[in-house]
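User: Show me sequence and structure for the first protein, then do the same for the second.

Assistant: Starting with the first protein.
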Amino acid sequence: MAYEKLELLINGKFSAGTSGKSEPVINPATEEVIGHVPHASAADLDEAIAAACDGFKVWKATPAVQRQAIMEATARILEDRKAEMAENLTLEMGKPVGEAAMELDFTISVLRWYAEEGKRAYGRLVPARVPGMRQMVTKEPVGPVAAFVAWNFPGVNVIRKVAGALGAGCSIVIKASEETPGTCVAIARAFQDAGLPDGVLNVVFGVPDEVSRHLLADPRLRKLSFTGSVPIGKHLQRLAADNLMRCTMELGGHSPVIVFDDADVQKAAQMAAGFKYRNAGQVCVSPTRFFVQDSVADEFADAFVDATKKVKVGNGMDDGVAMGPLIGERRLGIMQDFVDDAVASGAELMHGGERMGNQGYFYTPTVLKNVPEDAKIMNEEPFGPVAPIASFESFDEVVARANKLMFGLASYAFTNDGARAAALADQIEAGMLAVNSFVVSTPETPFGGINESGYGAEGGIEGLDAYLRTKFVTEVGV
């Protein structure tokens, strides 16, 4: 099949831009070049900012019900194009095409959620202390938005920014990942085909630091939303600080999974393995530190290994494949370093621990047992298909270990004790906690972390509010 034509979108027009520069897009399963993504010049970026400012005036003045109609029309176009887009997503990112289709289903759901919720950006009346006075609190869009997103979810990462901004009445300039640009471009085409006014959505690509410095230096952009790593998030926040730009930061995680001895251990292991190898472990809320109570630790590890051995790894376009490649060659060396360090620290390698084949960026699903607390993988986010398992004795001990790191995105626990579940909800330091499941993200619920995993939320009413500002108005004698 033909890969998506890669172009910039500025002021309603798709083009290759004016820089004359581009970079190749690599299929991580075959290492083949499937396209070239154009880089925006400084002039292109300036045009995108100006377009977003003009587009904001139009979109802010558009009634919310009309904004919803355009966003709903976009959702229907995306549904019609889902099969083709799923294959494109797999070509550029590697995940199995069925998994790509599910991501696009979620993408469409997020779009519909924000479209509807934008009609409910309510204010309130506050009783006045003075006779004849009316006090009103209103919500209004914050202004043109700058957004930057990571490569691991080319559809969801993009739509959370775009739909949140548009639902609130903001315009947006978004730079998607140059490694997975096709899905973003396809989403942008759907918006334009649905009748989105020119300049409301602008898509650019380029050298990340050059683009971010240029965009964030412009005071006309009033909001930054970023999904990516902790170091880059801190860097962007510093740039945004010069203009006191509002920020939403969805950064990395290192999610603990706590399995107590009263849980259904076999079921927990099956569920944990399935979620661990989703997207080859390249998920910010992926389970990455497994703490299992002493008396059931061996049973859990054995069941986890059994489930791991059944994971079919290969090209995401092939039937029956459950896990695709890592995004790039650089990730192979990082995985190997985590495994080698853990084994050198005393961990037992139960399965995997090596690259698969010599074409494509495939790494064997890997299970490590008895991993010591000082191993690198217990302290740094692996972002790959390596599962470290350690044991614990007591509730207080495991909570302290789960909370030890400065990450605070997602956490998971398995127990049938209601009082224990309630205590975990009180004591685990994370933006999201799932008990007896791995469900921490739906369009209508807030998604976000604390501490070095960032701040702010996407999804739910909190996600819309991130793009709104509050105004207080008093009227006397009107």
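Switching to the second protein now.
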Amino acid sequence: MSPNATSSPSRSAFDRKNPLLARVARRELLTAGCDEKETWHFEIDLRDSGLEFLPGDSLAIFPQNDPALADEILRHLGFSGEETVTAPGDGGEKPLRAALIENCAITALDRKFLGKLVEKAGDQADEIARLLDPDHKDAYEHFVWGREIIDCLIRHPGLGWEPQEFVDVLKKLNVRLYSIASSLKARPNACHLTIALVEYESRGRRRRGVCSSWLPHRTDENTPIPCFVTPGKGFRPPAPDEDVPVVMIGPGTGVAPFRAFLQEREVTGAKGKAWLFFGEIHEETCFFYRDEWERQLRDGVLHRLTTAWSRDQAQKVYVQHKVAEEGAELWKWLEEGAILYVCGDAQRMAPDVDKALHEVIATHGGRTPEQAAEYVARMRQEKRYRRDVY
């Protein structure tokens, strides 16, 4: 199957309404010894499922909420958890506790929940009522950041919620998408993922991502993992017989699809050169897949590997700084028709890399800022600048 092949019947056999119930066959902590972050490698067993995917695709996973958080919510509501409710999504009846764990989004605040809270709390929630005014959008965003539903229940106790009433103002617990970090040709019967635990302190409480904490800490080899593939569409490597250079910029878990790209290139004997930019906080404890990258360098599957370690020196160094440092060579690759891929953080990394790209073109291509912008626009039009950012 070509990397640009269309979906086969087996690829589309599983979807949101009919997910595959897979299992985690193997997990490995990629950041052992690192106190600042926790990033995991997962191998999802696909044997006998018929599920197929291509490099650049993502795996959509239906996670479960932390039972401890569900129990805390129940205590503050004064419910046992055995009350029968109609759960969002599937519409089936089940005990309230099960619905909170399996079906409801019980962390992030939204306008629907806050509106109902204002209705029930009355004058006690005047501050929140003002924030719901469309003219106070910035203040609203500031209020909801780092706050969760449990914070509101603690602040406004005794409002007399009914079980179904509470469930009805909660959103459905949605899937989480993760870039697939393996090639099916190279690793048959498995789907690899690279997932960082989302964890931070806010307003005196430890917050954790729903799926990024569920997979490493609340599943085992017997836990069903409901999942399906979502296509990567334009985020694909060139066909193996295309002699096209590729430049892949993927710091942190953004490197996941590029691991799939390189595995695919190795199996298919892809012709073009490949250059990977990878960044993390520490070389010693956060160099994901180091042995694999170095072997591919020796074997000629990967032609250049450029790394950035943000906290291994006084001055923080990120991938955008390395893009600038390697500007002369990068410009040569771009002029040879290289496709530039960027995957990862949309808020800071991707704009910073984009700025560095413009500066490389201006500096090493002898362009004015306006001409550099035109060059980048032409790259986008020719699908030589592809981003998967989130």
